[in-house]
Amino acid sequence: MGLGSLSGVLEEIRITGLGVIEDATLELVDGFTVVTGETGAGKTMVVAGLGLLFGGRADAGRVRRGTGRALVEGRLRFEPDDPAQKLVLDRVAEAGAAPDEDGTLLLARSVAAEGRSRAHVGGRTVPVSLLGELAEQMLAVHGQSDQLRLLSAAEQRGALDRYAGEEVAHLRETCKQQHQAWRQAVTELADRTTRAHERAQEADALRFGLSEIEAVNPLPGEDEELKAESRRLEHAEELRIAAYTAHQALAGDPTADLESADVAALLGVVRRSLSAVAGHDAVLADAARRADELAALCGELGTELASYTENLDADPARLAAVHERRAQLAALTRKYADSIDGVLAWAEQAAGKLADLDTSEEALDALRARRDELAAELATTAAALSRARQAAATRFGEQVTAELTGLAMPHARVIAAVSQKEVAEGAQSVVIDGRRLAVTGDGVDEVELRLASHPGAPELALHRGASGGELSRVMLAIEVVFAGAGGPPTMVFDEVDAGVGGRAAVEIGKRLARLARTHQVLVVTHLPQVAAFADHHVVVVKDSDGSVTTSGLQSLTADERPRELARMLAGLDDSDLATAHAEELLAVAKAEKDAAA
Fold first, then answer.
1. Which end of the chain is more exposed for a tag (fewer CB within 10 A), N or C?
2. Which residues pair with 436 in a beta bridge?
C-alpha cells in the first residue's frame, strides 16, 4: 500500500528540544507504524510532539534544558477532493496560508522555555486553534492523558451517524433543511407579532407611495420622451425656420441661374459634366458615381425637411399639457427615484415588501399554520432519524463489545446511549410521541458512549468507566468498528496495550493491522506481540553522555526487526533463543495479516 492510497496523511514530523529528544525526524508512511524503545528513551515524546503540533496544551516543563525552546514541525498531505479536508483547506486559506505546490502543508509549533507558544501553518503565523481545527479532520490521538476526540459529545453523535450509513445521512440532511425552514417561519412569525405597530406604520407608508404612483400611472421612459417633446414645442418657430431654410438651399428653385441655384441644381451640373466624359477616364467615372450618390442623398434629405416643416406643430395647448405631465412625473422622481424607470422599480419592490409586512390576522394565521406544518414535518423526520440512530447504536454496541472480548476485557460492554432532552413550552422544540423535545439541525438526539466494565456495573461515560489502559483498548475497539465510516485518516495510539500480554496482545496487534488497511496508524508500544504486526518499525534510541541524554529515531530494516523484538521479549538483543522467538512472532503476524487481506 503506497502513500497515495489514503485521502490525506501525515508524511513527516521533526521534534527538536522536547523532553529527552534533542533532534529527531520521523518519516511516516501509510499503514501500521510502530514506535518502540527502552524505558525512558522518549517514546511518549513522539505522541507528545504530535499533540503539541496539533494544538495541544503547551507545557514549558517539557522544553529540553539548555535549548531555550521546543519545536515540532510536520508535513501533511491533503486531498482537496475530500469534502472534510477541503473545508480545512478553505479555513487555512482564510488564515492567509496555503499548501505547497506539491499539495503538502507545513505545520510548526514552538514552545519557549518561559512558556510562550507560537503556531505556524504554511509559513504564516496563525492562532493555535487553527492547528486544533486541522486535528479534528486529520488526526485522532488516543493516549492515557490525552483529550480524546471521541470523548466529545458532538463527535460521538457524528461518529455514530457515519457508522449508520446512508439512511441516517439522508435523514440528517433532510432534518437540517427542515429545521432551517421551521426556524425561519418561527422567527418571521415572532417578528411580525412583536413589531406589529412598527410594521403597520411601514406598510402605510408603502401603500401611500404605491397609491401616488398608481394615480400618476407613469410609463417606462416617459419622462425622457416628454422632455424631448417639450424642447421641440418650446422652439417650434426656430425649428421651422431652420428646416425651411435648409430645404430651400437643397432644392428651392431648380430653374435659377448657377450663381443663385440650390444644391440640387448644382449637383445636376456636376453629374452631367462628369457623365459626359466618364467613359474616357476611370477616375472621373468614379467621381460621376459618387455624384449620383450625393444627388440621391440630397433628394432624400430635402424630402424629409419638407415633411418635417409640414408636420411641425407649435400647439400652445399641447405644450401646456406636456409641462403639466412633466411636473407630475417630477414629483414622483423627487420622492422615489432619479428616473421614472427607477420609480417603477421602487413600486415593484414596495409591493413585494408590503406583502411581507402584512400583519393582518389572516396573514398571521397563515404563518402559524405554516409554522405548525413545518414543525410536524420536522418532528416526523427527527423521529425517523432517532429510530435509525437507535438501531445503529444497538449494532455498534454489539460489535464493539465483541471486539473487547479479544482485547482482554471479556466482561465489559460498550453502549451507545441515544437519548433526548425534554424542554419546557416555548423552547426550541418539537413534540414527538407526546414529549416536547429539544431539537437542532441534527435532530432531537444526544449520543453518549458508555462502558459497563463488568456484569452488574453501572453504565458510565467512557472517561469515567475505564482506567487509562482500558480506555485505550476501548478506543481501539471503537475505532476498529468505526474504521469504514470516515473520520480522521491518521490515528495515534499511546500504550494501547497497557496492562495486557499474551494472546490479548496478539489480538491488539491484529486489530491495529486491520485498522491500518484504511488508515495511517502510529502506535507507541512496549509489547513485541503488537510490534510484530507493524508494516514499519521505528526505534527510539538513547545515548548517554554524562548528564545529557539525547534520543533519536531510527527506522529498522526487515533484518533488524527480530533483534529489537528480541530485546522487547527478553531484554537481550543478542539472545539466540529470544531472536528465534521474535522471528516466530513476525512469521505468525505475517500469516495472520495475509489471511485477513
1. C
2. 431
Cα dist from 201 to 32, 195, 205, 215, 309, whole Å: 70, 10, 6, 21, 56
- Position 468 scores a pLDDT of 62
* Beta partners for residue 522, in sequence order: 33, 492
**What would the pLDDT profile of 475-509 be if each residue is shown by its tens digit?**
788 878 876 566 678 888 887 776 677 788 888 88
SS3 assignment, position 450: strand
User: Following DSSP, what letter does each residue of 561-588 receive, concatenated?
Assistant: HHHHHHHHHHS-SS-HHHHHHHHHHHHH
Three-state secondary structure readout of 231-295 = HHHHCHHHHHHHHHHHHHHHHCCCCCCCCCCCHHHHHHHHHHHHHHHHHHCHHHHHHHHHHHHHH
Instruction: Classify burial at 74, counting beta carbons within 10 Å of its beta carbon; exposed 0-12, middle 13-18, buried 19 or more.
Output: buried
Asked if 50 and 80 touch (Cβ cutoff 8 Å), the reply is: no
Burial of 541 (0-12, 13-18, 19+ CB in 10 A): middle
pLDDT per residue as tens digits for the range 121-142 = 988 898 888 888 888 778 877 7
CA distance 126 to 117: 11
- pTM for the model stands at 0.60
> Residues 490, 140: contact at Cβ < 8 Å?
yes
- 3-state DSSP call for residue 427? coil
Q: Is the Cβ–Cβ distance between 564 and 573 less than 8 Å?
A: yes
Question: Cell triple for residue 156?
Answer: 460521538
**355 near 366, Cβ under 8 Å?**
no
Number of Cβ atoms within 10 Å of the Cβ of 295: 16
